User: Which sequence fits this backbone?
């Protein structure tokens, strides 16, 4: 079955430490890939996206993600975490190339930041 | 450019009632998608509209319906509300030639 897996439900990192959030997907072709962030009680904000080309993509707020076709992964990274990064992060996949408005989301990873 | 707006932001309804939620997309965006977010099921796709036509529908019962107007604003309706319909309902819009979706702040629906 088509799915998006975020294996870590909750991660705690110290402020200033590096961060990597994992995302794996199971689709036959390379889908369009996204990372979103959600603060409590808020909607989703797009951090970055991958459609094709360079497998390392840069996003907002200092985030980057790397697409690895061989591992069906699209992991999100940040070299130095700030307290304001505490939020929930969602990996999403569009298996239809934007033609049907249907994103498949992972269950999310909640990030806590220690001072 | 203004973002996606959703009204109302909070809503409390009683089981058996119906509810209508509204979404105004980013100016120029013709695609509007709706999602339900719950702690147990996460984010699930409800349906998507483009130029007043439903192009895609998720796996939800017929009590969930939607429509889109000529100005691209969209509404979703839930009839015969159940306790399990309590959720954050998110609307997202995208432009014709871009594939990313931009989300509104959501409507928090509580069914008692």
Assistant:
């Amino acid at each position: 079955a088509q799915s998006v897996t975020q294996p870590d439900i909750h991660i705690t990192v110290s402020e200033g430490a590096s961060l990597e959030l994992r995302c794996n997907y199971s689709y036959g072709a390379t889908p369009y890939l996204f990372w979103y962030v959600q603060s409590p009680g808020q909607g989703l904000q797009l951090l970055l996206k991958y459609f094709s080309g360079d497998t390392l993509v840069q996003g907002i707020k200092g985030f980057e993600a790397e697409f690895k076709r061989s591992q069906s992964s699209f992991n999100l990274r940040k070299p130095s975490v700030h307290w304001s990064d505490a939020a929930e992060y969602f990996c999403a996949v569009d298996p239809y190339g934007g033609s049907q408005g249907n994103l498949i989301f992972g269950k999310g990873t909640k990030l806590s930041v220690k001072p | 450019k203004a973002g996606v707006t959703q009204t109302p932001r909070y809503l409390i309804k009683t089981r058996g009632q119906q509810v209508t939620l509204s979404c105004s997309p980013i100016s120029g965006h013709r695609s509007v998608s709706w999602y339900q977010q719950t702690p147990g099921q996460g984010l699930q796709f409800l349906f998507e509209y483009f130029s007043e036509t439903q192009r895609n529908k998720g796996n939800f019962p017929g009590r969930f319906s939607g429509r889109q107007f000529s100005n691209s604003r969209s509404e979703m309706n839930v009839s015969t509300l159940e306790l399990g319909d309590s959720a954050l309902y998110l609307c997202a819009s995208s432009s014709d030639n871009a594939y990313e979706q931009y989300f509104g702040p959501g409507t928090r629906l509580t069914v008692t």
Observations:
- Chain B has no helices and eleven strands.
- The interface with chain A takes residues 4, 31-33, 35, 42-45, 48-50, 55-56, 58, 90, 92, 94, 98-106, 108 of chain B (CB under 8 Å).
